[in-house]
Structure formats: C-alpha cells, structure tokens
Design goal:
Oligomer: single chain
Structural class: alpha/beta
Strand order of the largest sheet: 5-4-6-7-8
Number of domains: 2
Strand content: 5-15%
Number of helices: 14
CATH class of the largest domain: Mainly Alpha
Order of helices and strands: EHHEEHHHHHHHEHEHEHEHEH
C-alpha cells in the first residue's frame, strides 16, 4: 500500500500541513501512522479522505459536521455539490483517488463521462491539466509508484489521441508544424494537446513525438518546408542540459521559428537564439496558436 507524508497531502489537497495537524488533534477522520522517528505517514485511504474533506470544507461544510459523516455520506454530499468549480474539482479528486487505488476502469469511466459531457478540449483544460499539476510533484519526488503514473497517463494519452483522430483530416493547409520532444523526454500529454489544437485549427502536423534525436529533427526540417518547430518540455532525463539543448536547436536551423513551452520553459532565464520563442504559460501557448 502506498504511503504519503503530510507534505504530500498538502500538495495534493491544497490544505496546509499546519491545518491538517490541527484537524488530527481535534477530529477523528485522520489517523496517521508514525515511523520510529515519529514522522507521520498516511495511507491511500487517508489520502482519499483528506481530498473529500477538503472539497466539502471548501464549498461550505464545517469540519465538525464533516467529522460526523461516514465515507458514504461524504461521497453523497460531494455528488450533490452543484457549483461548477466544485464539480470540476470533484472529478479531479476522483481521478486521483482511482489512480492511487489502481482502479483504472473507474479512472477511465470518469474520463469518458466528462469527455461525453464537455468534449476533449474542455476536459484537457478543466480536468487533465489540474489533475497532472496536483500529482506531478509526487511523480517527480517518487511519492507515487511509477505504475500509478504510467497507467493514468496512458489512459489520458489514449483519450487525447482519440480526440485528435476524430478531427477532420487536414488536406489543404497553409502552415506545417513539427512537434517533438528531445531525447530522454517522454511526458507527451502537453505536446498531444498542442497537436489537437493545431489540427483543430487546420494546420498540418508532423508529430515526431518523444525522445527525438537532433539528427532526425534536422533531417525532417531540411526535407520539408517547415513553418515552425515546436517542443514541449516537462521532465526530461536527469542529464538534460537546457542551455545545451537550445544551442543544438540553433544549429538545426537559424531561420525556422522554434517554439518551446512546458515547465522548463517557464523557469528558464538564460540567453536564447533569436528564432527561439518561450511560451511560459498555457495562455501564452494558446495565444500563439491563435496568432499563426
């Protein structure tokens, strides 16, 4: 069974560790175990509980009232929440709970229900990105088993690809864009979303995908007339050097505009070639895609 620290619970639920400690002292819904060095550890069931408690508390229920509810009563109250933001957060929490339980049938069912109601684009923005943001820090720090990550992201990946395939084929186009990620980068959800948006807008996409050697990128950009090279950086290999990567991109082409988005682009402060653009937020990325 997975175990989590109080900091893990804080990052996933949004409830400060100090508040969680106070709740433990005053109420009964959390009963953490303690290590030999007196450090709190929480089970998957307690993670699910804190997600339920935080959602109900955020939307008007007093902690003293929540403490008296059974798990079934909490779920019933959560389903009755009718605020739009509460409904979105409920789905995100449900995905987290199904992921930590390795119940991928229910995980996929939650995804399919929301896609059926809202469509894939809204699902990506309203559910998938918040879900990945909430649990991403745990993947990076190894507080979630890699099997949980792989199962969840592969379901998400399949849903986005299905959304891309359902779009009309691009037969006549004015722009050709190459999507890729460097060697050692395999987190392609963000890049698939860009693929969806580009195809939806009628652009032709050469999707090279993950783990692309520079020589392959250079070959394609020389073989075809390419209007943009687009890369999304989330969590490449540990030996990845972003400044070296930018230097290599500059050698691929000094003419083709190169666009970089993702977590590493957000934090980068160094020098870049004149044909490289950094998109540091989702809003900047969408604005760029709408402008080309």
């Amino acid at each position: 069974m997975s175990s989590y620290t109080i900091k893990d619970l804080e990052k996933i639920s949004g409830i400060k560790a100090h508040t969680i400690r106070i709740w433990e002292q005053r109420y009964q819904f959390l009963q953490p175990q303690r290590t030999e060095t007196n450090i709190r550890t929480y089970s998957s069931d307690e993670l699910k509980t804190i997600l339920n408690v935080s959602l109900l508390n955020k939307y008007g229920f007093k902690i003293s009232h929540i403490d008296k509810m059974s798990a079934e009563q909490m779920e019933e109250k959560i389903l009755s929440l009718n605020q739009i933001d509460a409904q979105k957060e409920r789905v995100v929490n449900a995905l987290i709970k199904e992921m930590v339980s390795l119940n991928m049938a229910n995980f996929e069912r939650q995804m399919d229900t929301y896609i059926g109601q809202k469509g894939i684009e809204k699902t990506i923005i309203e559910i998938i990105f918040p879900f990945m943001e909430r649990v991403g820090i745990l993947w990076i720090t190894n507080h979630i088993n890699p099997a949980q990550e792989h199962l969840a992201t592969n379901v998400i990946r399949q849903k986005i690809i299905l959304g891309i395939e359902k779009l009309p084929p691009v037969l006549h186009y004015t722009k050709r864009i190459v999507l890729f990620m460097p060697e050692g980068e395999y987190h392609e959800i963000g890049l698939l979303y860009v693929h969806f948006l580009l195809k939806q807008r009628g652009f032709y996409v050469d999707y090279l995908g993950t783990n692309v050697p520079m020589v392959d990128l250079r070959y394609l950009s020389e073989f075809h007339k390419v209007d943009y090279l687009y890369c999304h950086l989330t969590s490449p290999a540990k030996n990845f050097k972003i400044h070296k990567f930018f230097d290599q991109l500059a050698e691929v082409s000094k003419i083709i505009p190169i666009v970089i988005s993702g977590q590493l682009a957000q934090a980068y402060k160094g020098q870049i070639a004149g044909n490289i653009q950094l998109k540091r937020t989702l809003a900047e990325t969408i604005s760029f895609l709408e402008s080309i």
